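Customer escalation, tier 2.

The customer says the design service returned an amino acid string that "doesn't look like it belongs to this structure." They asked us to rerun it and document both sides in this ticket. The original structure tokens are below, unchanged.
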């Protein structure tokens, strides 16, 4: 299948993140994308560059002022004489005002970000825009008639919401792909998120909509990031009531539990009868992932791919997480291979 890849991803290199009380090298590295690119090419997929899709398309799922903030955050930080990476240091928790955006850079950062592990560096915007364009290009390829396409997005996207960012995500690539499919004539799109972490951003974006079904399998937020969304009782609201399905699994879950939840996800997807499928494809469900705790083995990724492909839908696969760099390429290729068969 076509695999959309942009070398611009490498402009985003966060350097360090705050993790469990320490400043550690980021887990989300440029090396990840290069390893996936090599594995995907070796498996025979055709690498293509993203198209120059107009930036106005971002506004289909994101707030305009948020987009402008992301674009200008690093320059603003520098022009105020600050050193290092752009990282927020305070957030509007309960009791503080969240109805207004403070004018200064520190207040604006706390207003738009929801964690301190998502640094903005000089090239973050270029990379995030290229990732968004990669996802929309893959959606365009599928809209034009291909059975499936893959977007090698880096930075990832599923934590980014309409006007907030975090979890290594700035723009929601998968949501942009889904919206692109809808704008291209699909009436209903299912978005299945198999990343280890709950796709809180995607959930929020489509929360009140009935044209997108959001289904997520993930580590239980009682103990796993992003902690504050992803519980089973979140089911959508308004017209979107019943169009969100969360299937949290305890940390430590293996294939036995995973397969049952995956079948539940696919059953809900079939009932929704969508015209197309978007997959938020994280492979941080892998047993030796450094920040996650599921116990999937390499042999399970072709099974996940086969299950998704078995839906028989035009499918856009969008890269999300996965940090066990030695195996990330083969695990992604394992999923994609099932669509080629
Ligand atoms: C922040 C952890 C972010 C999780 C990133 C991820 N310390 N999301 O893989 O899918
Ligand atoms: Zn993840």
């Amino acid at each position: 299948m076509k695999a959309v890849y942009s070398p611009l991803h490498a402009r985003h290199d966060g350097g360090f993140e705050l993790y469990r009380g320490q400043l550690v090298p980021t887990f989300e590295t440029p090396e990840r994308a290069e390893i996936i690119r090599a594995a995907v090419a070796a498996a025979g997929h055709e690498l293509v560059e993203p198209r120059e899709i107009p930036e106005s398309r971002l506004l289909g799922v994101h707030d305009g002022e948020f987009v402008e903030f992301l674009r200008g955050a690093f320059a603003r930080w520098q022009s105020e004489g600050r050193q290092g990476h752009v990282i927020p240091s305070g957030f509007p928790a309960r009791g503080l005002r969240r109805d207004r955006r403070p004018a200064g850079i520190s207040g604006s950062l706390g207003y738009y970000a929801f964690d301190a592990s998502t640094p903005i560096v000089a090239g973050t915007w270029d990379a995030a825009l290229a990732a968004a364009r990669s996802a929309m290009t893959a959606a365009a390829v599928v809209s034009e008639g291909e059975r499936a396409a893959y977007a090698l997005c880096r930075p990832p996207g599923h934590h980014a919401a309409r006007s907030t960012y975090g979890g290594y995500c700035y723009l929601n690539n998968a949501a942009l792909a889904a919206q692109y499919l809808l704008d291209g004539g699909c009436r209903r799109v299912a978005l299945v998120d198999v990343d280890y972490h709950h796709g809180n951003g995607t959930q929020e974006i489509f929360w009140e909509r009935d044209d997108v079904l959001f289904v997520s399998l993930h580590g239980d937020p009682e103990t796993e990031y992003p902690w504050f969304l992803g519980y089973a009782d979140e089911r959508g609201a308004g017209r979107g009531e019943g169009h969100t399905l969360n299937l949290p699994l305890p940390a430590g879950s293996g294939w036995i539990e995973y397969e049952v939840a995956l079948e539940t996800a696919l059953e809900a997807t079939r009932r929704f009868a969508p015209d197309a499928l978007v997959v938020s494809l994280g492979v941080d469900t892998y047993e030796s992932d450094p920040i996650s705790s599921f116990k999937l083995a390499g042999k399970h990724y072709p099974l996940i791919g086969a299950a998704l492909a078995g839906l028989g839908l035009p499918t856009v696969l969008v890269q999300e997480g996965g940090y066990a760099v030695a195996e990330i390429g083969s695990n992604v290729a394992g999923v994609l291979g099932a669509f080629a068969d």
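Tier 2 assessment: The sequence is consistent with the input. The longest strand covers residues 212-219. The chain is about 35% helix and 15% strand. Sent an explanation to the customer and offered a walkthrough call.
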